[in-house]
Amino acid sequence: MAASVQFQGVSVTYGPQTALRDIHLDIAANQIFAIIGPANSGKTTLLKCINRTIDFVPSARVRGQVLVGGEDVNRMRNPYALRRRVGMVFPLPVGLPLTVFDNVAYAPRRAGMRDRDELETLVEKCLRQAMLWDEVKDRLNTLGTKLSGGQQQRLTLARALSHRPEILCLDEFSIAIDPVTTMKIEDVLLELKRELTIVLVTNLVQQAHRLADHTAFLNKAQLVEVGETEKMFEHPNNPLTYAYVTGGFG
Predict the structure, then answer these.
(1) Which of 65, 126, 130, 218 is the most exposed place for a label (fewest CB within 10 A)?
(2) Which fold has domain 5-245?
(3) pTM score, two decimals?
């Protein structure tokens, strides 16, 4: 079941550096929500606040509230349970030193799934959703790290889906893969939004235009504009947004 996300007055600092300043944002369930903006505008920081991987940065200080499905993530006693609800795919593939099968089965096993038939069904489903099954179905016992870069990125996506998350966060997922594979994954994302909420950070503004229902534009730690994607690209309210989506800077 998909979940909504709300940012209510969220500010993040890393020591003296401000990464996000007073962000107010509503992300509805079952949509693809894109976050665009130049480098160092706070996009990745915003994602990390959703599943509290921001906690791993010793210098980070977070103020305000982030709500997942109406619950304040900073009041959740078990951040690991939160991270099962919020899957994350990073820019470069991070494969576990395990077989393809065990990469995808790792999280379900940690959550208590032991039935082999149930695991096999889930692994196949996740690999199919990641557009990888046909390429690896005869190599499930091969080390995941032996796959190509594009295949490893899709394996990372399958592993994130194995949690059966309510929200899937993607941080520049296509940076290390070829355009054909990127288009395949984009098709997958359009299908997946029926089941979950997708928050997509991308430097490729046309990718946001193709995929997103709504888009937020960040610049210099601030939310400049947010709205329906088509309007953001065709008739934005802020001249800075227009300059960015038309390639004026970035």
Answers:
(1) 65
(2) Rossmann fold (3.40.50)
(3) 0.91
